[in-house]
Amino acid sequence: MSSAKARLNRMFGENGKCFDVAIDHGFFNEFAFLSGIENMRSAIETVAQAGPDCIQLSMGQARLLQDIPGKRKPGLVLRTDAANVYGSELPKVLFSELVDRAIEHAVRLDAVAVCVNLLLLPGQPDLHRQCVRNISLLKSECEKYGMPLMVEPLVMLPNEVKGGYMTDGDLHKIMALVRQGVELGADVIKADPTDDVSEYHRVIEVASGIPVLVRGGGRASDEEMMNRTANLMKQGASGIVYGRNVVQHADPAAMTSALMAIVHEDASAEQALAIVRGGRTHG
């Protein structure tokens, strides 16, 4: 068995599904992203105790997860690139910059996978080229060290349409970018939901057998998140990567438990909402 397969076995549950809680938002130099995670030690400990499969962190904060004793804690997904595309106004020069020797750091930190962006912004081909190059560089190192590569294809709307960090749910754009991520060597895809969730099976199909985890995006109501998640899982998603809808929730632990029930126990949206309202912790 390759070390990449061993790490993927730690990332995905026995049912081949994964819930990764993203708490890497401080990496992107946006004050609004810090809501709910100002105290990172507390945020990580709260989520870790709720028992998701993975927690996604930057290199500087990964120690807060890996310092937790015991063998039942979530796996570490290490964010490997910092980008400046998330503000309400785009800077004159856009970048997505890789951490130096990211895969060596990931091995040292006992990560189960690394995550990197594949950004597609209107009229920004140079940024897209940077991301393609980043993925190609990481893929070579991932193969050398047996580290699974999670690629995050992210189709964004023009900033003047809705402001910063607004994703484009166009099915065809998402399908094309997901497929490019797969072609570049992704072991896992982390992609946006489509505007029409009932069409998401087409994104799963175009990923060609590579597991697809669906991003959560900005804050939404509990009802919307549970209904969307249950529908996405029915469409064939291998799991979810949610951040702000967990860490900015009034009860992050209950939210984690409810989403874990959908991902791993085929719970309905109604059953998951009952968990949130009751504050029950998973497992």
Q: CATH-wise, what's the superfamily? A: Aldolase class I
Strand order of the largest sheet: 1-2-3-6-7-8-9-10
DSSP strand (E) fraction?
Answer: 15-25%
Helix content: 40-55%
Alpha-carbon distance between the two ends: 29 Å
**Count of domains:** 1
Poorly predicted regions are: none
Largest sheet: 8 strands, parallel, barrel
Structural class: alpha/beta
State the name of the first-level CATH class.
Alpha Beta
Question: How many helical elements?
Answer: 12
List the helices and strands and how they pair.
Blueprint: H1 3-11, E1 18-22, H2 40-50, E2 54-57, H3 62-66, E3 75-79, E4 81-83, E5 96-98, H4 102-108, E6 111-120, H5 125-145, E7 149-155, H6 159-162, H7 171-183, E8 188-191, H8 200-206, E9 212-215, H9 222-234, E10 239-242, H10 244-247, H11 252-265, H12 269-278
Parallel strand pairs: 1-2, 1-10, 2-3, 3-6, 6-7, 7-8, 8-9, 9-10
Antiparallel strand pairs: 4-5
Helix pairs in contact: 2-11, 4-5, 7-8, 9-11, 9-12, 11-12
Description:
An eight-stranded parallel beta barrel has the order 1-2-3-6-7-8-9-10, surrounded by seven helices. Strands 4-5 form a two-stranded antiparallel ribbon. The protein contains twelve helices and ten strands. It is globular and about 50 Å long. It has helices at 3-11, 40-50, 62-66, 102-108, 125-145, 159-162, 171-183, 200-206, 222-234, 244-247, 252-265, 269-278, and strands at residues 18-22, 54-57, 75-79, 81-83, 96-98, 111-120, 149-155, 188-191, 212-215, 239-242. With 283 residues, it is of the alpha/beta class. The protein has a single domain, classed as Aldolase class I (TIM Barrel, Alpha-Beta Barrel). The mean pLDDT is 93. Helix 4 packs across helix 5 and helix 9 packs parallel to helix 11 (252-265).
